[in-house]
Amino acid sequence: MLPRLVALVVLATAGSGTQARPFNITHLIVPDVVPPGQAEVDIECRYDANFTLLSWFKGHNEFFRYKPGAAPSTRSFPVLGIGRIEMVSCGPTACRLRLGGLTEDATGLYRCDIERDVPPYKFETRTARMEIRGHEHRRPLLEGLAEEYGEGDFIQAYCRGEPDAEIRWYVNGKEDEEMRGSAAYKRHATRFYFIGLPPTITMQCAEFIFGKLAGSKESKARWREMAHIRREDHVEHHKNGSNVFRYHLSFMCILSLISYF
């Protein structure tokens, strides 16, 4: 009886130890400043956690995802200012990336998120800032996007990249796969594409060479509210109506004077 009781106590202690396992990001290694002439930089997220998803962000834009056990387990996304994203290693204790093709647009906040999307649900995040100095802009070039669009307008944009590059288009961070390989983006404007306040669309063209991201460029446009247009039309119509009334009144006065004399 006593040995069985001891075994139960040991199992209970072991179980409580498993439940108490940490879920932490221990270190976020991001250089404060990348000086002119440095072509690439390594960033690293270290952790003590049993997670199901790790994500790297620059600002609000996700640019790398690591999901252990998935096929494929990693995926990268174009982000402004970073021309190349390479995974050095991602495993049980750390995820290290190498960023290249940098421009000064890569300056900003970098965030590492880890989460467990199965019970027990957990989440942890850590942020650091990196400043890029003296790095000139590079291809691709994004041209043709207007400053604003309204219902019925036609969105047109053009992306010029390297001759051997495959062009991919991203709208608000998600790829429009129907436009893959096309240097021209053409869609009818709808309110659905414009998000946030004020409603804005973020267009991004990215060039991939041999399946790897080589560069990207983004631009934004606003939504032209129809209520504002209707208000302007109403004011113009009111002005026109007032002018017609004044002309009619003047004409009646002239007729009255002629009849009097």
Automatic annotation (TrEMBL):
Keyword Signal appears in the UniProt entry: yes
Alphabetic keyword roster: Signal
Signal peptide from the UniProt entry: 1-20
Listed name of the protein: Ig-like domain-containing protein
Species of provenance: Manduca sexta
